Amino acid sequence: MTSPEFRAGIGNRMKIDFEHRQSAHCENGATAGLISHYGVEISEAMVFGIGAGLFFGYIPFIRLNKLPLTTFRIAAGSVFKRVTRELGIEITARRFRDQQLAMRVLDETIAAGVPVGLQTGAWWLPYFPDAYRFHFNMHNLVVFGKEGDNYLISDPVFPESVICPADDLRRARFAKGALAPRGKMYSLNKVPARLDFPKAIKNGIRAATKAMLKYPLPIIGVSGIRFLAGRLERWPAKLGEENSLLHLGQLIRMQEEIGTGGAGFRFIYAAFLQEAAAHLEEPGFIEYSRKMTAIGDRWREFAVRAARNCKGRAGVDDSFAAMAAILREIAADEEKLYMELAEALK
Amino acid sequence: MRKEEVPQDQGIADGLKEVAYAVDEDGRYVTVPSAGWEPKNISNYQAWEVIAAEIAATRRRVLNGEASPLAYHMTRNQMDITLLAQYMGLMRWRVRRHLKPRIFKKLNQDLLERYASLLKVTVAQLQDISLVDEPRIPGRDRQ
Predict the structure, then answer these.
(1) Facing residue for B39 by CB, picked from A130, A133, A256
(2) Within 13 Å, how many C-alpha atoms sit on residue A93's CB side?
(3) Between B15, B37, B83, which is nearest A256 by CB?
(4) Is it true that domain B40-131 has CATH number 1.10.10?
(5) Nearest residue of chain A to residue B79 (CA atoms)
(6) Which of residues 201-230 of A touch B (CB under 8 A)?
């Protein structure tokens, strides 16, 4: 519903000149879009790298559709927080209890010419194709205008900007369930004219390598990949065939899900390392990028084998033991690369 | 992954093209639209088949008079009792009761309207067992 103030203030049409760009992942994309809006060109990959988005966690006690959660990136919200902090960007972020107030503040903010990032649930967004409609609450998008009762939205995972009726957007902002957005909105107050990219890049890489190498839990980082390999190997005996295939399917979905850019964000990170090489004037980083691409290719190979199992077309090389072996090789390759990166930044 | 290897396997995405990261002939990273990838289609169909089987099972229970139509609409909206109760601001035991045909029939208008508005149907549709449809799997019927 349009608030009366909004109508009185600026009429029925309001549009901020905001450039929509499709990206692989929603939070990277929303963050990159907001920063770029203030005249600082920044890519999705750069946001992901500075935000230390790269991660791994196999978390069997958190269940999604009754199956264990595997994540290839850091917790939602953390990339935005880190990137803005590292680049010295002042932000406003708030959540709401009152749904009407949440929509009114959104209207007032865009009326003031400020594009607004929102955390939403995916389920209630009518422009989502059915296949993507899950009760998934960590979606991010940017609102850049309103026409009558429709919001103009730059949803990073869509090729073009989209339109969303106010009532649906309100529902999406107050989706319930795990990690409910509770109306979360965020915007940028001030972007410094000069940003210290090299420092931010180095800190981002340090944070990511630290999480992957030194996280004090066996299910996180490189040791998490090894932990998963051990579990996966025992799935057929422990869970039976049908349930092991469901577990395997979930794993591929999390790895290749919309937003990962392929191979569980490994390709996006490789793109970031390439950009980092130029910023840091360290041609050696091109080689790190190449290694990360090779690691991504191995994750894809793992997914191909896992999918053949799910389809009932597994060959001799696709056994659970063979897949676990690939995971262990990936863990070794990633471990080596993160150690090299950490060493290079000393 | 090289640019020319970016898969274009139609399926679950149902026409939407996602962004994939790949390297071009000079080894530089570029973003390439991708229509989908077979392993991803396979794993997503697997998930949808589980969902569809649950909807079909609930549908049978509704048609057999073992569950109220609300149970069908809950499942079709991929909700469980906990999530539906959260959306309705009700205790779970109350929602569980509403899934019983006998109790659902006596449900007051206010609650019916709230359920209907949440699930995006009319009260009449919510009560009408004949509208309880077979599930559909996205991207499948178009292949």
Answers:
(1) A256
(2) 16
(3) B37
(4) no
(5) A135
(6) none
Locate CATH 1.10.260 in chain B.
40-131
Q: What span, in angstroms and rounded, lies between the C-alpha atoms of A175 and A123?
A: 8
Tens-of-pLDDT digits for all 143 residues of chain B? 999 999 999 888 878 899 999 999 999 999 999 998 999 999 989 999 999 999 999 999 999 999 999 999 999 999 999 999 999 999 999 999 999 999 999 999 999 999 999 999 999 999 988 777 777 777 675 44
CA distances A73 to A248, A256, A307, A311, Å, are: 19, 12, 22, 27
Indicate the average pLDDT of chain B.
Answer: 91
All structural domains of chain A, each given as residue ranges with its CATH number in brackets, are 4-42+90-190 (3.90.70), 197-344 (no CATH)
Residue-by-residue DSSP string for A229-263: HHHHHHHHHHH-HHHHHHHHHHHHHHHHSTTSTTG
Gap from B83 CA to chain A (nearest CA, Å) = 6
Q: Which residues of A touch B13 (CB under 8 A)?
A: 129, 131
User: Which residue, among B1, B8, B21, would best test binding to A if mutated, counting the most A CBs under 10 Å from its CB?
Assistant: B21
Residue A148: closest CA among A14, A16, A8, A18: A14
Q: B14: phi > 0 → left, psi -120 to 50 → alpha, else beta; which?
A: left
The pair of structure tokens assigned to A339 is: 């150690």
Whether residue B47 and residue A293 make contact (CB cut-off 8 A), yes or no, is no
Indicate whether this model's pTM tops 0.95.
no
Inter-CA distances, A98 with A91, A104, A111, A184, Å: 22, 10, 20, 12
Measured between its terminal Cα atoms, the distance across chain A in Å is: 55
Among B50, B83, B136, the residue with its CB nearest the CB of A135 is: B83
Compute the count of residue pairs across chains A and B with CB atoms less than 8 Å apart: 119
Round to the nearest angstrom and report the end-to-end CA distance of chain B: 27
Residue of A nearest to B15 (CA): A129
